[in-house]
Structure formats: structure tokens, C-alpha cells
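A favour between colleagues. Tell me how you read the following sequence-structure pair.

===
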Amino acid sequence: MCKEVGHEVRCAITGRAAIEAAKAFRPEVVVLDVHLPDVPGDKVARQLKSQPGMKSLRVIAISGDDRMRVPALNAGCSEFYLKPVSLQLLEKLLRE
């Protein structure tokens, strides 16, 4: 889907891998599932935003648990959406 709408994508399964991938790739937008197997998503967002040159990084948090909304937004995520996130919404968010 992302290549079809002109986006270059990197995927990571764990929080640590996401942080390392973002350091190397320097994304404009991160779509972050806040339920990761190793590091909570709010901590991943904080670490991403603390990297040099990433303070203004747009982090879109997604979760199946609305209780994660406040921690995610407090950690610097610019938006929070509950699962399931439709492909149409994801495409719209990535185009903005």
C-alpha cells in the first residue's frame, strides 16, 4: 500500500528495532503500535523524539486500548487512533 502512494517504508517488530531503524532512516512520520513486545510505545516515542533532529518527528500512535491515549500523547505522539485503523485513514494521515 505505501509504495503505491509514494512512500518509502521501514518496518520494525520491536521497540528497540524501531528506534534503531528510525536513527538510520530518519523518517518524516512514524506509525507506532504502542503495544510492542519489548519496550512500551510511549517510551519508544520519547526516545525517538529525543534523538538529534527528530524533535518535530510526527509520531502517530495506534492501540487497541484507549487507556494508552494519554501516555502516548504525553510522550510526544501527535495523534492517537484506536485499532482497527482503516487503510483509508492511514493513507489520509500519510498524505498530510
The chain has one domain: 3-87.
